[in-house]
Amino acid sequence: MPREVVDLSYRIEYLSILDEDANLDTELEPDLPDELLLKLYRTMVRARRLDARMLDLQREGRLGTFAPIKGQEASQVGAIATLGEGDWMIPSFRETAAALWRGQPMHSVLLYYGGNPQGNESLEGTHNLPLAIPVATQIVQAAGIGYGIKYRGRDEVAMVFFGDGATSEGDFYEALNFAGVFQTPVVFLCQNNQWAISLPRAEQTRAKTLAQKAVAAGIPGIQVDGNDILAVYAATKEAVERARSDQGPTMIECVTYRLSLHTTADDPTRYRDEEEVKQWEQRDPIPRFERYLAGKGLLTEDELESIAAEVDDQIEEAVERYEEQRQKLGDQARAMFDHVYAERSPYLEEQLHQFLQVQGHDEEDAYA
After folding, report:
1. Is residue 8, in this structure, part of any structural domain at all?
2. Among residues 46, 53, 94, 262, which one is catalytic?
């Protein structure tokens, strides 16, 4: 029998609208109101400057280990801005910018990384899940949430964030397969920042793109310039609209770069070339977007300085509030044991007892 080519329905496209030299494809440019454009910019700046302040605090011993986001602001803000208030955000451990867009206070971000579990609590009335430290576990949860949305017939969409390293995990493939089978309203948002800690993207997979991994699950995939906030917004908005109109899930691969550390416990100089970093700095999403906004007459040099100063004041207020609250909440750390199960398992009870002993509390406090 002769060999026949299988006709696959999906092809992988790459989308770029505003390139690193600020060249704009006007035919693909999304029609966004000025107010939204400025909000996108302010959120990116706030996330970048908070990130830098957090790094200082961590080095001073005033904050614990965290994952910096420098360089990935566009892929987070451009995506999350397409969701409505009733939609679901399922983050990994590097979505500070997306969390700020969804209303998480900056002092709350600091509280979590300062060791207070209260900082990771979801805001009342929101559909924001807490950070997920294990790699890829949140992708399965997103698939389940999507199934729940569809089962209940709700007008909601779930968006899950993950990195390139997560696409090598079994949870990723299971979640995509499940979502493809049941056509759940989920947007799978991969931030391909080129490094899974010290493992480069080229050594993780032989696939030419990460987006093409969606094809095996019968899901459309698209690769976008993750440092181009216009491209990220346009691709994600289309995916959200598909999901909301019962046309199933989409996977988006945002090609971006981690300009800083994997976490503050990491030393990237031991495994990556500084010249590579410098090349990607030329593609920084914030200066690129600034040039775009300036070209539209929405930003001047004075306004850039004013926004930066205003954001810095907000950050310092958040730091002060964080320092005050972490002292007050120090004795409430046991709350981390109260929101896992309706009834604590024997193993969790054992951990709670050990925790209370270290804290110098009586045994009966475990049942308080």
Report:
1. no
2. 262
How many structural domains is the chain composed of? 2
Print pLDDT tens along the chain (368 aa): 889 988 877 789 999 999 999 899 999 999 999 999 999 999 999 999 999 999 999 999 999 999 999 999 999 999 999 999 999 999 999 999 999 999 999 999 999 999 887 888 887 889 999 999 999 999 999 999 999 999 999 999 999 999 999 999 999 999 999 999 999 999 999 999 999 999 999 999 999 999 999 999 999 999 999 999 999 999 999 999 999 999 999 999 999 999 999 999 999 999 999 999 999 999 999 999 999 999 999 999 999 999 999 999 999 999 999 999 987 776 677 777 887 788 999 999 999 889 888 877 665 554 55
Q: One of 14, 59, 154, 271 is an active-site residue; which one?
A: 271
From the candidates 127, 258, 288, 326, give the one annotated as an active-site residue: 258
341 plus 309 within the same structural domain: no
258: annotated active-site residue: yes
4 belongs to a structural domain: no
Catalytic annotation present for 271: yes
Q: Which two tokens stand for residue 92?
A: 């990994």
pTM above 0.90, yes or no: yes
